[in-house]
DNA sequence: AGTGAAAGGCCACCGTC
DNA sequence: GACGGTGGCCTTTCACT
């Protein structure tokens, strides 16, 4: 699907605040809200707009620890490893990557104890596990949600 | 702020689809929409609900390459390094971490050429740069946006 | 692809319990 | 803290350009 500047402007506004009323979006891009509605629908159907998410502070829900975990998997055991990882509570993202690790994960835990259980109890003991490195996030210096538009 | 089960249920619904009308949320949790409105406002003010974001497919905007970049910084040059990184187009997240790197970043690029410019043109030449490792994301096996509720 | 109009639905804000 | 009611705004659709 081809996106023009108007589409990009709409995306920018909704990426900033997904609950912005279409009528307000229309005002800002100087078009009717029917048009906005139309374009948004088209972008949803084309898979450009994939959803609308409320952002929740992890700390408020008791997740005080967040980490990246790099993982090496034994050759031939990739599929079973991924399947296990997907099912681990706290594992939010599982990416296949080039470089030092085969898999890069993003995990949330309630505490370091909880993270320890997750790593040594579930991940290190799984089928296909080779070795891992846990990079605990001490702080986030900069975070821009979404895509540059 | 203390969250009860009703609050959590509201968060779960809005994390799934931030544009769900409050009246619909109210129906699902079997309360009035005035109550939902009330609770949402309280959670926004308390910083539990930090925003609402439309999710956009990076590929649709021409960002075909995504990577994690681990970075080591020369001691005493942390601040200037972070400042530089924040300003690099394509750098979306900058986290301070324990482990093998000092900084873990998440970057988007339009192509491998673009990524090369970003790494060798801007990051490797910056003040305080020690060394880096780029982990290009070949695929994402699992991704659960937001926090487990 | 964009528009205005219109019906129905929704939001936000009361006052009340 | 939760509720019903209300006025104004918003969404969605449609015929027309």
From TrEMBL, chains A, B:
Coiled coil: none annotated. Keywords: DNA-binding, Transcription, Transcription regulation. Gene3D superfamilies: 3.30.70.920, Winged helix-like DNA-binding domain superfamily/Winged helix DNA-binding domain. InterPro entries: ArsR-like_HTH (IPR011991), AsnC-type_HTH_dom (IPR000485), Dimeric_a/b-barrel (IPR011008), Tscrpt_reg_AsnC-like (IPR019888), Tscrpt_reg_AsnC/Lrp_C (IPR019887), WH-like_DNA-bd_sf (IPR036388), WH_DNA-bd_sf (IPR036390). SMART domains: HTH_ASNC. Residues 3-64 form the HTH asnC-type domain. GO terms for molecular function: DNA binding. PANTHER family: LEUCINE-RESPONSIVE REGULATORY PROTEIN, TRANSCRIPTIONAL REGULATOR AZLB. This is Lrp/AsnC family transcriptional regulator. It comes from Halobaculum halobium. The lineage of its organism: Archaea, Methanobacteriati, Methanobacteriota, Stenosarchaea group, Halobacteria.
């Amino acid at each position: 699907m081809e996106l023009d500047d108007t589409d990009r402007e709409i995306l920018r506004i909704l990426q900033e605040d997904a609950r912005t009323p279409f009528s307000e979006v229309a005002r800002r891009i100087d078009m009717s809200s029917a048009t906005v509605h139309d374009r948004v629908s088209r972008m949803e159907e084309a898979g450009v707009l994939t959803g609308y998410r409320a952002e929740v502070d992890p700390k408020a829900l008791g997740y005080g620890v967040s980490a990246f975990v790099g993982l090496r998997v034994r050759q031939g055991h990739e599929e079973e490893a991924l399947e296990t990882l997907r099912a681990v509570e706290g594992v939010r993202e599982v990416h296949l990557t080039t470089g030092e690790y085969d898999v890069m994960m993003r995990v949330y835990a309630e505490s370091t104890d909880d993270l320890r259980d997750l790593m040594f109890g579930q991940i290190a003991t799984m089928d296909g596990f080779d070795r891992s490195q846990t990079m605990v996030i001490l702080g986030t210096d900069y975070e821009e949600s979404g895509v540059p538009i």
